[in-house]
TrEMBL record:
One of its GO terms (molecular function) is sequence-specific DNA binding. Residues 153-252 form the HTH araC/xylS-type domain. This is Helix-turn-helix transcriptional regulator. Keywords: DNA-binding, Transcription, Transcription regulation. InterPro entries: AraC_XylS_family_regulators, DUF6597, Homeodomain-like_sf, HTH_AraC. It comes from the Bacteria.
Amino acid sequence: MKTYLPSPPLQPFIQLYRIIESRDEKVNRVLPDSTPAIAFRFKGQLRYIEGEQPAITLPASVISGLRNTVRLINYQPDTAAIIVQFKVAGAAAFFKTPLHELFGHSVSLDHFVNRQQLTDLEEQLSVAASDAQRVLLLDNFLLAQLRFPKQDELVLHALHQIHAANGDVNMKALATAHFISQDAFEKRFRKVMGTTPKQMASIIRMRAVLQQPPADRNLTRLALDAGYFDQAHFNRSFKQFTGLTPTAFFQAPSFW
């Protein structure tokens, strides 16, 4: 796996590009996160696995919205893709469609971008001589898609407070602190972030849990510290989020 920074004009919105190549078949466990992502496959095949359902072959260019469950991405042999990892609220700068409509879904990017432009990019990525050339192609493509460079400061400030509290925030109090009704706050937040403030807080809370595995394996204390009222509720939420029990996950955490 290799990572690259976007060009300076894109850095307020995009954290990095991640290039993943696989000679052999493998499955990546991708946990819920606080930003959408775009994947451009330039070689091989990618499949999406959900539960016991048959694997679904993904389009060459796909955008994935936020979700509250783990996703398994199957890389077929000799497959490569470049992933656009947005910064918080960064994706909203590129798309007119409210991002909450993507929640829980992975769809072809041609729902949002001109099909011919996308086809041209896909062909150029597949024949590029190096990853550096691919990054340059992607930079130019995304700069052309940049629509709304001014970010919503109210939403960003509220999100900062949710992160600072590791997701343990009262949403009514948060809206009041920003001098806005709870309904108006939730609509504004959902449009920019792709989910409700409450759901975002749940994602941030569980992400915080994963960053501090219990040294003594005291899962009850971990659950209580994270704001869960009982172990059973924590275990259900944890398995939905990671696909594994807490004990199994912390024995060998492997995700991104």
